Amino acid sequence: MNTAWFCGTFDPVHLAHLRVASHILEEFQLDSIGFLPSGQPPNKLNQSVSPAAIRLELLGLAIAHEPRFFISTIETDRQGPSYMIDTIAILKSVYPIEAPVLMMGSDNLASLSTWKSWQQLIEQSRLIVFRKDYSDLVLPGFLQPWSGHIRFSSAPLLDISSTDIRRRIREGEPVDFLLSDPVKSRIFERQYYH
């Protein structure tokens, strides 16, 4: 199974998430992308994260059109903070993979040294890094020993943020061209993020 795992909060999933996933699927000739919504991200313990049921519902609507995309609830099924090193162990026990391929934004790569057991995480996985801001994709010096474990994607930068989408919805601003139609319809139908 040639799968990359797209880890994130997806609160809500937006068009940049889908575009990056589609690009990486083709660029790295993958069979599938597994979306791995985080349960309680350790870097967001002081922030409010929407219930997993809402995020999973919207993610399901967003990826329904692409049979090579699927959702894993490994992290949302767990209690407490979702540490990636623990998720890697679960992925390796559930799927026949030696080193899971994880997709992450350049912002997370830059702060990887703050993650729990980050060196083991790098040793036990492979990373595909995509641009999250306008800075160049550069391997931070502390990751040089693991340069063979990290590849950069040429996925285009789409300046869309879930935080901004939630703010726009609360303030009654348009979210056209930021969300897929099914996701946008469900958000307004159920009054999510209002």
Structure overview:
- It contains seven helices and six strands, in the order βαβαβαβααββαα.
- The chain is 35% helix and 14% strand.
- Helix 2 (52-63) runs antiparallel to helix 7.
- The chain has helices at 15-27, 52-63, 84-94, 106-110, 118-124, 162-170, 181-190; strands at residues 3-8, 32-37, 69-71, 101-105, 126-130, 150-152.
- The protein has a six-stranded parallel β-sheet, sandwiched between helices.
- The longest helix is centred in the N-terminal third of the chain and has 13 residues, at 15-27.
- By secondary structure, the protein is an alpha/beta fold.
Give a summary of the structure in a few sentences.
The chain is α/β, with parallel strands linked by helices and 194 residues long. It contains 7 helices and 6 strands, in the order βαβαβαβααββαα. It has helices spanning 15-27, 52-63, 84-94, 106-110, 118-124, 162-170, 181-190; strands spanning 3-8, 32-37, 69-71, 101-105, 126-130, 150-152.
CATH class (first level) name: Alpha Beta
And the CATH topology?
A: Rossmann fold
| Biggest pleated-sheet summary | 6 strands, parallel
Report the average pLDDT across residues: 93
Total individual domains: 1
- Proportion of residues in β-strands: 5-15%
Counted by DSSP, the helix tally is 7
| Spatial sequence of strands, sheet with the most strands | 3-2-1-4-5-6
Measured between the Cα atoms of the first and last residue, the distance is 40 Å
Q: Uncertain regions: pLDDT < 50 for 5+ in a row?
A: none
Strand runs, count: 6
Coarse morphology: globular
Percent helix, as a range, is: 25-40%
**Overall SS class:** alpha/beta
Query: What is the CATH superfamily classification?
Result: HUPs
CATH architecture: 3-Layer(aba) Sandwich
What's the helix-strand series?
Answer: EHEHEHEHHEEHH
- Radius of gyration, rounded? 16 Å
